[in-house]
Amino acid sequence: SVHTALVGRTCEAFFEQKWYNGEIKSVRRDDRGVERVVVDFIGFTQQREYKVTDVKMLRPPHPAQCHPGTRCQAIFPEDGLWYECVITEQTEKGYKVTFTDYGTKIEVRFDQIRLSGSGGKVAEKKRTIKEVTTPAGYKIPESLVIQKTDTDDVIDTKKRKIQAIKKQQRSDKIEEDALKQQTGWQKFFYTKASTRSKCGFMSGKPRESIFKVPDTLEGKVGVVGSGKEMTKFAEPRKFTYQYV
Question: Which of 35, 33, 34, 43 is CA-nearest to residue 7?
Answer without folding.
Answer: 35
